[in-house]
């Protein structure tokens, strides 16, 4: 299993390269998902977890007092703590519509988010639409090949088709949101193996203390995700910041460090350097 550093040196996608370099430089494969509705809480959490993260995942459409200053501050924190930004927008419409949703509106996602994601459900035209905006800016796209929720429909041939769509668009698609490595998935008999591809696997549904949230979310440990399933980045939200109505700064910092250490320990085990 190759190291993050080695993969960074060889990756054809600019955003993937940036992420792998950040992981290697900071020795963290932790992405913190900051799902809170107040700008002040959002920025405070990111300032606390930034030193421990390679990537910060956002849902900017849930923030009640969103404004342009929030983006400026987010970008300043990204520079201060050396992490990339991933807006978890989950685009799912026709090419023309997603290109507008990505570039325009209140949020102007493409102008500040290094990475975003899309459901493969509309077919390859969703990638064409997003790439028309994101590629000139050096952005990267993740396809949702699987989901962490109980009863997810993104399984079997749907997942296989998602991987084939990515293979046909490697210049913009840098990897997947998935629960396991996708090497060889969807490769037809007699077809080329997946040797030349290096899709990054970013995995939500990670928690050390509970197995679910009562609303369909299912949690696995960093070790299960990184060692057993071969994923690259653990995405952790509530396991780190807890209840947003009762934020405890010391605990947020402690939990971020805890997940960072668990994620890195699992990676070292995977590459055989335990
Ligand atoms: P949590 O607090 O660690 O459960 O948050 C998980 C985050 O990852 C949350 O922002 C979800 O929207 C996101 N997510 C997920 O949980 N599962 C998935 O399959 C996908 C995204 Br795709």
UniProtKB/TrEMBL annotation:
Endpoints of the signal sequence: none
Pathway(s) annotated for this protein in UniProt: Pyrimidine metabolism; UMP biosynthesis via de novo pathway; UMP from orotate: step 2/2
Gene3D superfamilies: Aldolase class I
Residues reported in the UniProt entry to bind substrate: 35, 57, 148, 217, 237-238
EC numbers for this chain: 4.1.1.23
Keyword match Lyase: yes
Catalytic activities: orotidine 5'-phosphate + H(+) = UMP + CO2
GO BP terms, alphabetized: 'de novo' pyrimidine nucleobase biosynthetic process; 'de novo' UMP biosynthetic process
GO MF annotations in UniProt: orotate phosphoribosyltransferase activity; orotidine-5'-phosphate decarboxylase activity
InterPro entries in alphabetical order: Aldolase_TIM, OMPdecase, OMPdecase_AS, OMPdeCOase_dom, RibuloseP-bd_barrel
Positions of the catalytic residues: 88 (for ompdecase activity), 90 (for ompdecase activity), 93 (for ompdecase activity)
Domain Orotidine 5'-phosphate decarboxylase: 29-252
Presence of the UniProt keyword Ribonucleoprotein in the record: no
Keyword annotations from UniProtKB, A to Z: Decarboxylase, Lyase, Pyrimidine biosynthesis
Family indicated by similarity: Belongs to the OMP decarboxylase family.
Name of the protein described by the UniProt record: Orotidine 5'-phosphate decarboxylase
